[in-house]
Amino acid sequence: MSAHHLARVAAIVLVVGLLGPIAGMMAASLLPETRVFGGFPWTGPLTLTTEHYAALIEERGFLLPIRNSLIVATATTLVAVPCATLCAYALARLPMRGKGVLLALLLAVSMFPQISIVAPLFLVLRNIGLLDTFPGLVLPYVTFTTPLAVWLLTGFFRQLPRDLEDAARMDGASRLRVIRDVVLPVAAPGLASTAILTFLYCWNEFLFALSFTLGPEHQTVPVAIALFRGRYQIPWGQVLAAASIATLPVVAIVLAFQRRIVAGLTAGAVKG
Amino acid sequence: MTTTSTSPHDSRLALLLVTPALVVIAGIALVPIAATVWEALHQHDLRLPWLGRPFIGAGNFIEALGDARFREAVAHTVAFSAISVPLELSLGLALAVLMHTVRRGRGLVRVAALLPWAIPTVVAALVWRLMFENVATAMRVDWFSDPLTAWIPIVVADVWKTTPFVAVLLLAGLQTIDPEVYDSARLDGASPMRQFLTITIPLLAPSLVVAAAFRTLDALRIFDVPYVMTAGGPGTATEPLSMYAFAALMERLRFGYGSALSITLFALTFVVALASVRALSRATPVEPS
Asked: First-to-last CA distance in chain B?
């Protein structure tokens, strides 16, 4: 067997290993629980059912955490990305002292353990009445998404050709005008990748959402799923349905923007 | 910097543009870190409000040193990182080389690599828990009731979820290597293995260090996977430091002690981050910036 064939076999094994669990989860969410947990060999006809989804939405009110997650992730993206765009442009193009220190600080903030700021944030949010509210989640989320977004966007801005900007400057346009009319349109793909990644991080975030919500009213999807463990036994059918719902938008985003996502991940980490 | 038109005006503008992001980061990250340090020096129990919040200096840290559950949590965190990160790096490197080599179906491999990374960690943990529970019934092995084997599903889920991220980082590094280097090596009769060891690995070293640093810092703060998979059990056998700190804070409401625990994790992360910066400056050949 040639190296080329070997690579192809390895690729197939990997694709199955990486996608199998996700595909299996989605398939199992459409089967009766007795089918999934009845043990081998499976007997009887294969019947698909949407009973878990119906129970999840009607009995558990799972639309609420979905709504909450959408609100929090969208709001965070709308705050963090514009904030980060301004900062990243300055870092990429304008003269400034301490750039290296600032970039290192940003990276440090996005990599430190979130648990280390849970205590003071909890106390502050409680004192100003924002515990268990949407702003009370968006504020902490902005901390870990802004540094990341700045890091990604600085990489993107640095890759943009300077010629257009310089030409506009020669024509007498002010810096802010150049940013608005020349840089932002050209940087649109970079801004899109950054917004997508920011949204994904918020959609998936668990620790802050667990710490700063008190009940189902503002719980996000990951928290709702994690706290599913019923008192006596886990309703696996519903858990799988909920996990599939949490995964579907992610699958859609990855399928639609795979190249952009890879560009975003690598612009920050390798070339930054 | 080779800006064509630099003016004092630009410097002022730069400061203005950086300010919103800086305010956000200072206000919701740096100040809270300082506040956690301050909190860690106090006795502060939300369940015993009549005690107030007396300053006790290093009292919480001294208590932690005598706390077996804390020492075990530190050991769990370090051991988990030491086992999972090398696994993720080596598998990630293999996956990256594969993604680099495969010609047909590149898009499919890329999607397959991105999906585990992109889905919520909570979901990944649940799916792997379900699979291990099903395997348990088939094989009559109960992974989750033994303090040692309970780690296996956690490591597997983490490796499955994060290896693709490593691969994407390393793939970007691989793509920057000039193919001509390999061509001349092949002409000199170097075997594929030799090419890998003498060309790929050295040229990939900076990317490897970056990936190792990212993964180690991330592994040290692991929370979601054990929280969902084992709840730290059996007992506290799979409880990492971030989960113990969370329990001290949000379950026992001991904010002083919990802060001391979480600052310890912060310090651990900080040391690793400094070490990685030094490693990176050694791995990166001097290049004009």
From this structure: 9
Rounded to an integer, the average pLDDT of A93-109 is: 84
Taking residues A233-261, report their average pLDDT: 88
Phi-psi region of B176 (alpha: psi -120 to 50; beta: other; left: phi over 0): alpha
For domain A60-271, the CATH class is mainly alpha
pLDDT grade for B189, boundaries at 50, 70 and 90 = confident
Taking 3-state DSSP, the helix, strand and coil percentages for chain B, each rounded to the nearest 5, stand at 75, 0, 20
pLDDT given at position B4: 47
What is the per-residue pLDDT for A32? 85
What residues have CB less than 8 Å from A174, skipping those under 6 apart?
none
- For residues A200 and A251, give the distance between their C-alpha atoms in angstroms, rounded to a whole number: 11
Give the span between the Cα atoms of B244 and B171, in whole angstroms: 36
Copy the structure tokens of residue B114: 């991105």
DSSP secondary structure of A123-185: HHHHHTT-TTSHHHHHHHHHHHHHHHHHHHHHHHHHHS-SHHHHHHHHTT--HHHHIIIIIHH
Which value does ipTM take for this structure? 0.90
Q: Give the span between the Cα atoms of B104 and B113, in whole angstroms.
A: 15
CB atoms B227 and A105 under 8 Å: no
What is the predicted pLDDT for the residue at A80?
95
CA B271 distance to own-chain centroid: 14
- A29: which 2 tokens? 């969410």
CB burial of residue A35 (10 Å; 0-12, 13-18, 19+): middle
A147 contacts A107 by C-beta, under 8 angstroms: yes
Segments making up each domain of chain A, as ranges:
1-49, 60-271
Distances from the Cα of A161 to the Cαs of A82, A157, A185, B197, in angstroms?
21, 9, 13, 36
Residues of B in contact with A14 (CB under 8 A): 95, 98, 109, 112
What is the pTM for the complete model shown?
A: 0.90
Mean pLDDT of chain B: 88
Terminal Cα distance for chain A, rounded:
41
Give pLDDT, residue A271: 42
Interface list for B 46-85 with A (CB within 8 A): none
Where are the alpha helices (H) located in A94-117, listed in sequence order? 99-111
What's the farthest any 2 CA atoms get from each other in chain B?
80
- Per CB-CB distance under 8 Å, the chain A contacts of B156 are none
Q: CB distance B265–A147 less than 8 Å?
A: no
B195 vs A: CB within 8 A: no
Tokens of B219: 């592994």
Domains along chain B? Answer: 73-283 (1.10.3720.10)
Which residues 116-145 on chain B approach chain A with CB closer than 8 angstroms? Answer: 116, 118-124, 126-128, 130-131, 134, 137-138
